[in-house]
Design a protein that fits this description.
Elements: H1 4-13, H2 15-39, H3 43-72
Helix pairs in contact: 2-3
């Protein structure tokens, strides 16, 4: 089991990644909720949009990593 000090040290090292993850999640859920309120789709569509957020997140991260590698070359 890791200590609180190690957890804080890791969080400080990865703060921009954590903030990016949080911002993406908040924006995605807000978008899906807005669609749900305005259009009133069936529940299955709501869940599919939420699951699509997982795919969109990993696509975003993957493209960001590729762009960062190209920039560093």
């Amino acid at each position: 089991m890791t200590g609180a000090g190690e957890w804080l040290r890791t969080a400080r090292e990865e703060r921009w990644g954590i903030l990016t993850d949080l911002a993406f999640a908040v924006i995605w859920v807000t978008l899906v909720e807005t669609i749900n309120v305005l259009l009133g789709p069936p529940t299955m569509v709501y869940y599919m949009l939420m699951l699509a957020g997982i795919v969109a997140y990993f696509g975003f991260v993957w493209n960001f990593e590729i762009a960062s590698k190209r920039e560093n070359q």
